[in-house]
UniProtKB/TrEMBL annotation:
<dbReference type="InterPro" id="IPR029056">
    <property type="entry name" value="Ribokinase-like"/>
</dbReference>
<dbReference type="InterPro" id="IPR002139">
    <property type="entry name" value="Ribo/fructo_kinase"/>
</dbReference>
<keyword id="KW-0630">Potassium</keyword>
<dbReference type="GO" id="GO:0005829">
    <property type="term" value="C:cytosol"/>
</dbReference>
<feature type="binding site">
    <location>
        <position position="287"/>
    </location>
    <ligand>
        <name>K(+)</name>
    </ligand>
</feature>
<feature type="binding site">
    <location>
        <position position="250"/>
    </location>
    <ligand>
        <name>K(+)</name>
    </ligand>
</feature>
<feature type="domain" description="Carbohydrate kinase PfkB">
    <location>
        <begin position="4"/>
        <end position="296"/>
    </location>
</feature>
<dbReference type="GO" id="GO:0046872">
    <property type="term" value="F:metal ion binding"/>
</dbReference>
<feature type="binding site">
    <location>
        <position position="142"/>
    </location>
    <ligand>
        <name>substrate</name>
    </ligand>
</feature>
<comment type="subunit">
    <text>Homodimer.</text>
</comment>
<comment type="similarity">
    <text>Belongs to the carbohydrate kinase PfkB family. Ribokinase subfamily.</text>
</comment>
<keyword id="KW-0418">Kinase</keyword>
<comment type="pathway">
    <text>Carbohydrate metabolism; D-ribose degradation; D-ribose 5-phosphate from beta-D-ribopyranose: step 2/2.</text>
</comment>
<dbReference type="GO" id="GO:0004747">
    <property type="term" value="F:ribokinase activity"/>
</dbReference>
<feature type="binding site">
    <location>
        <begin position="41"/>
        <end position="45"/>
    </location>
    <ligand>
        <name>substrate</name>
    </ligand>
</feature>
<dbReference type="GO" id="GO:0005524">
    <property type="term" value="F:ATP binding"/>
</dbReference>
<feature type="binding site">
    <location>
        <position position="248"/>
    </location>
    <ligand>
        <name>K(+)</name>
    </ligand>
</feature>
Amino acid sequence: MSGKKLVVLGSINADHILNVQEFPRPGETITGQGYRISFGGKGANQAVAAGRSGANITFIACVGEDDVGRQVRHQLEQDRIDVAPVEAIAGTHTGVAMIFVNRHGENVIAIDAGANAAVTPDYLNKYRQHVVEADALLMQLETPLETIVAAAALAKANGTTVALNPAPARSLPDELLSCIDIITPNETEAEYLTGIAVTGEEEAHRAASALHAKGIRTVIITLGSRGAWVSVEGEGQLVKGFRVEPVDTIAAGDTFNGGMMTALLEGRALLDAVRFGHAAAAIAVTRPGAQPSVPWREEIDAFLAKQ
Ligand code: RIB
């Protein structure tokens, strides 16, 4: 385990997953198969990826006062995560995600925030000391934006590295972007933030430059199986991903983020940390579901040793 401390602030969901041949069209009813409920939420998935990769990690989040909430909190502890700042909120349910996975392994997701909406600036304030003392803070966009803005400002003011995975896609205030040290959009999210459609390396370079212009030093645009465009202060390059046969891509980006941040906090160079994240994500896409697919450190090291 790295001595450096990572805090993840984010969401927890119960994922209701159904496999379908093709996604249903408006007005269409189709029959799927393999219905299951497993633990997810972009925040929790990233926390689990970090915990299983060996990070020293604390998670700030909320669950509902329900069975799923109790079970997921217990599971997060098994995944070597400090869950002291994960509270059960009375009168609400644990967040929910409805997910279709098609025969190509692609997914569409709709979420109901539930207890994730209770991660307010006041809630953050209760646990602010974790952010102040952390080496890095990793966030996504499934918690209230005002909390993310407050957490980024708190981290920035205290010398904590701020990493943002801007998923799901939405536009963001410059006030937030100027506090971010590392941003990890996928192609869609990069287009949302910059207006530049990322169709190749040239466009990735331009989108990264637009994000650098907002004050972000490190921009990592994930490109699915092709890898990631990694740009530091305008110097960019493609770091290729690993070829695997995907089963489903749920939480691939989350696993990348959690793994990469763990490797960075261990002192690895950025490109090496990105490669570590790619390896973790490559394993995850060969398995179904979100958290059930996230690999442990020994698996990632073994995968990398074989390359
Ligand atoms: O990134 C995948 C996650 O998005 C799922 O686990 C689901 O809960 C949604 O938050």
